[in-house]
Amino acid sequence: MTKSKRLVAFLVLLLLFLSMVIFVLFIGDVENSHTNRSGFTVNPTGRLTVDLEFGAINIETTDQDHINIAYTKEWKAKFRALRLKSVKWISELPGDFEITTKNGDSDTQSDIRIEGKFKRRREHWQEGLKWFTVDVRVTVPRQYNVTLKTAASGDIYVDNLIGTVSAEVLDGSLHLGKIQGVVSGKTGGSGDITLKGCQSSVNLTTALGNIRAEMTTQPQHPWTLHTSESGGIDVALHPDIAVNVDAQTQGNISSDFSIQPHRDVESRLKGTINGGGPLLKLRAAAGEIRLRRN
Fold first, then answer.
1. How far is CA 77 from CA 16, 31, 67, 80, 186, in A?
2. For 119-232, where are the E strands, in sequence order?
């Protein structure tokens, strides 16, 4: 083979290689994923604290006195045109978000703390975060307490827990299943809140989002639901539940129940359902308030 032919062959191979790189970076799937699992034996009277700068939190329960922690950090783009800077994001971003677990020194712990934060500031990765996800999943004893907070790009899920729940989502929604302890929750932005029953006191607040709650059993403690901007409040009650209602909004109020006495002004509904009971306090700045028969 002559020198010129060898040069042509080299250039052809080089072009094929570059074509493959371009296909991967600009057309195909590009991903980088990190997964970690750990577990601890705990006292059921303890508390789990999860504080994330970024990501979603999912809490499930078990009948065992054990906590299982699993988290996934994934950077993935699908059929997108990526800039060369993205190559650096792919290799460095998941590793820059550090998740740590603190469980003390003894074999059986009461409290577990999980923190997740960027070593560099979150703003450093701002353009790449739209392709980045963090998912923290924790299985706790059914009788346990949880304090949860996530600052960006993630919802919080808690289901079937006998214990207190304190949850704050700054950029996402809050989903609460059946809880048998005190519940306090807050969302920022347009995040919604859903609650499917609670046997203790409830205090939920959202800014631009909506609140949807189910009161499935007779409450023994007061509930307060508050939307501070345009969000609405929808409460579904079992027909036999007895509560004192105090609802106020600049929007509309509707009820499937007979309220005694009748509302005194259009934007205020105050009275009792089925003879009265614990206070159900509903406050919406401008959204609709609805009481539904479940």
1. 23, 6, 32, 6, 31
2. 132-141, 145-150, 156-158, 165-169, 174-176, 183-187, 193-196, 202-206, 211-215, 223-227
pLDDT classification of 93: cutoffs 50, 70, 90: confident
User: Residue 242's closest CA among 276, 290, 292, 198?
Assistant: 276
Mean pLDDT (the chain, rounded): 87
Domain boundaries, the chain: 25-150, 155-294
Its pTM stands at: 0.86
Sign of the CA dihedral running 278, 284, 285, 289 = negative
Cα–Cα distance for residue pair 279/223, rounded to 1 Å: 6
Q: Which residue intervals of the chain are DSSP H helices?
A: 3-26, 85-96
Mean pLDDT of 10-28: 56
Task: Print the SS3 string covering 239-261.
Answer: CCCCEEEEEEECCCEEECCCCEC
Q: H helices within 101-225, ranges in order?
A: none
Determine the residue type at 222.
Answer: P
Asked if 213 and 194 count as a contact pair (C-beta separation under 8 A), the reply is yes
Please check the confidence at residue 79 and state whether its pLDDT lies above 50: no
Chain segment 119-161, per-residue pLDDT in tens? 998 888 888 888 899 999 999 999 999 999 999 889 999 999 9
At 94 the three-state DSSP class reads: helix
